[in-house]
Amino acid sequence: MGSTTTNEIESKFKSNSDRMDELKAFDETKAGVKGLVDEGVVKIPTLFHHPPDTFSYSTNSTNTEHIIPVIDFTNTRQHIINKIKEASETWGFFQVVNHGIPLNVLEDMKDGVVRFFEQDTEVKKEVYTRDQTRPLVYNSNFDMYSSPALNWRDTFKCNIAPNAPKPEDLPVVCRDIVLEYGAHVEKLGMTLFELLSEALGLNPNHLKDMDCSKWIMLLGHYYPACPQPELTMGTTRHSDGSFLTVLLQDHIGGLQILYQNSWIDVSPIPEALVINIGDLLQKIQSIQYFLKAVQRT
């Protein structure tokens, strides 16, 4: 039977207290991870150190079996539905091309994110906040005070629907493209929910009528160059607690998904968008399949 000494308790308390002081000090700079890079950091703070992942790393550069499906929206509707159904059941991910969003809009959106984060630090400090009620929220690590280790990443977010932000509430450097891209993605989202509804054997409006598409949030992530990438992560292993995620990758890539206990690279395709079936939609899928099984018995 173990015991805990007073010295151990005091040491743990001091450690926790020191960590909280470090977190607050970093947060109060309002400069984020990019601020550390701009200062020429050579050794990253221990706040960003991550333990090794337990899953194996796999490269799929020569393995065609480990490439997530790419679905071309110029095919027939039934073909698209069949492919979405198969990809959702097998992978939980797929990519879409010829989806209706012009390539220049995708490129402008990526450029807009870079422009925002590469503004002068003093300009960005004016919108740095943890107040989730603000029209635009910019900070580093939304879960800073609860996560075991920080991600090497800064983020801004804003709600696109049900009420689009007012232009004056968005930074000038990315205002127009955020609104334009947001409108395109909202339209694409409606189409995806129709196709997913049909893939589940339901009325095309089923998921939309459940308000799955009611709330749409746009996030822009920025991953500065890291002097010790082996010690940290840009984004840790997670699942999305949403219905659906539409992800726009830049040319650098780095996205991986966990498939059969191995991390699989998702190589960037210039015009493609990566679609991730979120936790909430997975629950709906599971319930629907269960109900079908019950009906057959």
TrEMBL record:
Classification via Pfam families: 2OG-FeII_Oxy, DIOX_N
UniProt keyword tRNA processing, yes or no: no
Cofactor(s), names only, from the UniProt record: Fe cation
InterPro entries per the UniProt record, alphabetical: DIOX_N (IPR026992), IPNS-like_FE2OG_OXY (IPR044861), IPNS-like_sf (IPR027443), Oxoglu/Fe-dep_dioxygenase_dom (IPR005123)
Record domain Fe2OG dioxygenase: where: 214-297
GO MF: dioxygenase activity; metal ion binding
Domain of life: Eukaryota
Keywords: Iron, Metal-binding, Oxidoreductase
Stated family: Belongs to the iron/ascorbate-dependent oxidoreductase family.
Protein name: Fe2OG dioxygenase domain-containing protein
